[in-house]
Specification:
One of its GO terms (molecular function) is DNA-binding transcription factor activity. Keywords: DNA-binding, Transcription, Transcription regulation. This is HTH gntR-type domain-containing protein. The structure is a single chain. This protein is mainly α. It folds into 2 domains: 1-64, Orthogonal Bundle (Arc Repressor Mutant, subunit A), CATH 1.10.10.10; 71-243, Up-down Bundle (Four Helix Bundle (Hemerythrin (Met), subunit A)), CATH 1.20.120. The protein is built from 11 helices and 2 strands; from the N terminus they run H-H-H-E-E-H-H-H-H-H-H-H-H. Strands 1-2 form a two-stranded antiparallel ribbon. It is elongated.
């Protein structure tokens, strides 16, 4: 791999790690060179490549700006195929939950060790948003806040691979959360249980207890799986009973 290609990769990872949004200005060249440990000529070549790809735009005298979020390979490679599988067979959502257990359990474990004050504030922000939108009966916004809560935990791990993986499957995560919420959050006592589970995850991370954070996340996801299975079975029994009554 050429030096410029390595710098392009490092620059893309930096954009992802900082969660930069379209329109944001990149740090000055000198600062970027220090952060990436590269020469100014290599940095300029990398910026030129990303500019030609439409990801960056340079404005004379004003600096370089993010023009387009870099396309994440996992968006097409992972999300679309799995979304199609869920459409074809709803049982695949349980595979998503199993994958979440592995991915998010590890993320929470590292987050409890590495979370900064800013990370903790963001996690708590989305925790509060879940309750707020739930109180309004806005399932879509509540599920978005729920997904962002879990994503914020992954970002607090400060592991770029885990962060990229979670961002790559974010749409799938939100879709899966929404499906679960429509079932599990339909009853007040279940919402209270889930709210308490989210709190325990957040509390363990704030206390910097890796094992408790991992166990809380995995326990939360397992609870959702069990509840959805139970609700599905109840619905199936009611449908069978309804068909029998029509005979």
């Amino acid at each position: 791999m050429k030096v410029s290609d390595k710098v392009v990769h490092s620059l893309r990872m930096l954009i992802a790690e900082k969660n930069m949004q379209v329109g944001e200005r990149l740090p000055a060249e000198r600062k970027l060179c220090e952060q990436l440990g590269v020469s100014r000529s290599s940095l300029r070549e990398a910026i030129s490549q990303l500019t030609s790809m439409g990801i960056l735009v340079s404005k004379v005298g004003a600096g370089t700006y993010l023009q387009q979020i870099p396309v994440n390979w996992s968006q097409n490679q992972i999300v679309s195929p799995l979304s199609n599988l869920i459409d074809q067979d709803p049982a695949y959502r349980f595979d998503v939950q199993e994958a979440r257990t592995i991915l998010e359990g590890g993320s929470a474990w590292y987050a409890a060790q590495r979370a900064t004050t800013e990370d903790l504030a963001l996690i708590r922000k989305y925790y509060d948003q879940i309750s707020y939108f739930q109180s309004l009966g806005d399932d879509e916004q509540a599920s978005l806040a729920d997904a962002k809560f879990h994503l914020a935990i992954a970002e607090a791990s400060h592991n770029l691979v885990l962060i990229q993986m979670m961002r790559g499957v974010f749409d799938l995560l939100q879709f899966n959360v929404l499906l679960g919420r429509r079932k599990v959050y339909s009853e007040t006592h279940r919402f209270d249980q889930l709210h308490d589970q989210h709190f325990r995850v957040m509390d363990a991370i704030e206390r910097h207890d890796p094992d408790a954070a991992r166990d809380a996340v995995c326990g939360h996801i397992e609870f959702v799986v069990q509840q959805v299975r139970m609700i599905d079975e109840e619905e199936a029994r009611r449908q069978r009973a309804s068909r029998l009554n029509r005979i």
